[in-house]
Amino acid sequence: MDQSRRKRAAVLGAVTALALLASLSVGGTPAVAAGDSASGRARAGTPDAPTARETASAKPAKAKPAKAKPAKVKTSGETRRLARNGYATHLDAEFVETTIRDHGTSGLILTVKRDPNLTPGDLTGIGFTIDLPQYVIVDSNDVDNTCTQATFTPDFGDEQLVVSGIEMASSQAQCTLGVAVTSGRSGTYTINDAAVTDTNGDIGAEITSDDLIVTPAPPRLTAYFDDDDIKVGETTDLTFRLYRSDENPGTVTSGIAWRLTLPAGLVVAATGNNTCGGTATGTVGSRIFTVTGGLLGAGDGSCEATVEVRATAGGRFELQSGTVTGLKKIETAFGACIGSVPDDAPDDAPGADATCVPTVDVEKLTQTVTFAQPVPRKVGDSTLTATASSGLPAGFTSSTSDVCTVVGNTLRVKTEGVCKVTAVQNGNGVYTSAHSEQRTIEILPRPPAPPTVDGVPGQSSITVSWTAPAETDAIVDYVASARSGDIVSSCTSATLTCVLGAVAGRPYTMMVVSRGPNGVSTVTTSTGTVTASAPIVPQAPPETDLDLTTTDGRITEAEPGQEITFVGTGFAPFSTVVITIYSKPTILGTAITDANGDFRKLVTVPSDLAAGAHTAVAQGVAPDGSPRAMALDITVSVDGLPVTGPGVATLLLMGAGAVVAGAGLMLAGRPRRRLAR
């Protein structure tokens, strides 16, 4: 007999005895010391300790107090009968727990009572034999015995109880023997006088008929994975088994149902064999498998329903208690989890070795990273390429961040030196992390930087010049720039100088780098700053054939106080342009060109500007630093009437000869235009 049964029997035997001791305290003289009797009374109302089978049940039998039968008040007729039969003691028997589930345990208490109506005296050699009801057996060889010198040694599975050698002192009213009994078959089992098949000594049967009701326990649902060690993408069968513990061949359980929700990472691949009747349903690719309307018929001890599951991710997956829900007419083994089998299942039964929590270990797929040796790189940004056999994107890390860093798949080389980059793929739920691949990338030497850089200010421009380094073989050209706050002008030159546009009145710092096949040199910065001046406004309009325009096109007329937005192009980027209106030069405003050398400037025609012909001029520098002017002729009107020259009456007074002279004066009064650079 295994250790679990011994432990169960010991506990139940103790409870049975204590319950009996409580009953003895109701009437008659206690057969134990006061302390033991009090202990028995205190524990008599506790439920039997659960057996392994009861632990497997979803609802343990309700604990109820041991029944303490009141002492019978015997009539004079009963006294005469006992005296006539001549027995000094009588035997009674009762079940502590009158209702149990199949394979549950109840205590059977046997009481030997002295007849108080007979002359007291010491009694010896009392014994008896009781045949247990059919299908009821001893559940433990551990007993509780308060009868002096009694021999009582039942074994697990015995169907008969044999007691001998009881001695009772004249002062002893009764003694008890307790044993745990069980039945694996549902039904009602009665114990009465007919169970006594033999007696020894001065004892007679006086058993008040008592019933033990054994109810069928619901079938137990268990589960196990056929192959509990697979890889991602592979399948394994998950088999559910229903075991009936009730050995009554006539028991039928219908309307069986349960619902399985697979852990994330497992999905239904196909439904398999189903001997549990009803309908087994599992949609491929889902995590749900259900059985409804199942039947465990008469004589059927078990049935199976199988679902094939596929692993979509790696890891350990367990079917915990919440995995199976919607139980109808069944219970999960041990009530808290599934996957164990009943104690009485054959050792070679499928799933007999399953643990309490069915578990499958899914091994992730392996992957590799391919990272070809990168070609030498120059200072600056370039792209890295690596692939993973899984198809997952490879990542990169740099272990030499002072020389190079990686953002995404962009390698950023900051300076010459040793650049070490590692390609990685950390895996996911399907793939393990790949073995990383490190590469050392050669960084090409940058071209040497110019030793010095300086600048000479001009009108809206700065002429930047620099010196060449000692070695120029690795240099293709230079990039010079001038910075003032957030304004930066730059130029590219194969020589040692270039001109940059500049905003007048702002200090600029000059910088220059060398460029070559291996990248860009370090930056050489000027030691001081340079400030450009504004264009000088001449007293007369400069000669130019470049047309200034407005946002309304090339207008020809304007009125005092009118707002005009001038538009100019072709100047040095980020340079100052002065807008002036002639005859008498009046500055209307200044503009700063954009990166393309263009500008738009809103100005207001002076309210005191004399009526007549005028010229608006935008003056600055071209990208090469040469003067650049754009002009627009405008006639300023008075009260809406244009004035184009001398009064009409004066012209009418002139002779025919004066017409030619007047024409010559008019031509002399208009500025001559030439192409401005």
Q: Which strand order does the major sheet show?
A: 5-7-3-1-10
Helix content: under 10%
- Low-confidence runs of at least 5 consecutive residues: 1-84, 334-342, 350-354, 640-677
| Strand segment tally | 47
Beta content comes to 35-45%
- Secondary structure class reads mainly beta
Broad shape: rod-shaped
Radius of gyration, whole Å: 56 Å
Report mean pLDDT, rounded to a whole number. 82
| Distance, first to last CA | 116 Å
Query: Can you count the helices?
Result: 6
Question: What does this 3D model show about the protein?
Answer:
It is built from six helices and 47 strands. The chain has about 675 residues and is mainly beta. The strands form 13 sheets. It has a five-stranded mixed sheet with strand order 5-7-3-1-10, covered by helices on one side. Strands 16-19-14-12-22 form a five-stranded mixed sheet, with no helix packed on it. β46 and β47 form a beta hairpin. α1 crosses α2.
